Automatic annotation (TrEMBL):
One of its GO terms (biological process) is methylation. Pathway: Porphyrin-containing compound metabolism; siroheme biosynthesis; precorrin-2 from uroporphyrinogen III: step 1/1; Cofactor biosynthesis; adenosylcobalamin biosynthesis; precorrin-2 from uroporphyrinogen III: step 1/1. Gene3D superfamilies: Cobalt-precorrin-4 Transmethylase, Domain 1, Methyltransferase, Cobalt-precorrin-4 Transmethylase, Domain 2. It comes from Novosphingobium piscinae. The keyword Methyltransferase applies. Residues 10-219 form the Tetrapyrrole methylase domain. Keywords: Cobalamin biosynthesis, Methyltransferase, Porphyrin biosynthesis, S-adenosyl-L-methionine, Transferase. The keyword Magnesium does not apply. It comes from the Bacteria. One of its GO terms (molecular function) is uroporphyrin-III C-methyltransferase activity. InterPro entries: 4pyrrol_Mease, 4pyrrol_Methylase_sf, 4pyrrole_Mease_sub1, 4pyrrole_Mease_sub2, CobA/CysG_C, Siro_Cobalamin_biosynth, Uropor_MeTrfase_CS. This is uroporphyrinogen-III C-methyltransferase. Its EC number is 2.1.1.107.
Amino acid sequence: MSETAPRVGKVWLVGAGPGDPDLLTLRAARLLMNARVIVHDGLVEPAILELAPKGARFVSVAKSRSRHTLQQDEINALLVREALAGHEVIRLKGGDPFVFGRGGEEAEACRAAGVPVDVVPGISAAMGAAAAAQIPLTHREAASMVTFVAGQCKGLTEQDWSGLAGAGRTLVIYMGVATAEQIAEKLMADGLAPETPVAVIENATRPTMRVLRGPVAGLADLVERQRVKSPALIVIGAVTARDETELRALALAHAH
């Protein structure tokens, strides 16, 4: 008798959204309710994991600034290994898999190994946080352009950030809490006015959400004084104004 090769499973890269379980897509919720193997990030809300059926196997690959449960190459190998063993694998990520989620790297690893992979988008952290804080990332009076950057990228001080923030523009910084001082100094060195308004959104869409405001020159002090912890997003620009009157005044000031 000849042995047949085991059936190859599949990897689903699923966005868990910004935190609130109600912000999951219907497709993501359906996949979770039928999941057998779930490889998840540390920022995924526990209530979302509770949607999985009894007996589902959870593998945490939580990452922090100083400690990774698994390195990215090891996560890639884990996904491939589980799928080649015939399992349907849910790779559950906070926000959206393809917005600072390394989903592209994981999809490439799966394709290279002959493993079918599909992507289920989620509400990104930026979109969810801005909506929860009622900060419009674009606005006819203040911003026709929005840029997303990573605040922990390599070579931060050597990059040219001129033009990313300022009149008519909104800048959203992921993973910027630990480097808030360098970010503020970098932006001002590249031409951003020190009084440009900033909002720091901590624990977006969760019951413990906070929205903290101040000028870019005081960003580091704000983060330290308020003891801001991840997950948190930094939004820079006139759109962070508290109301329409303040927003219009900021837009007018920048126009002159």
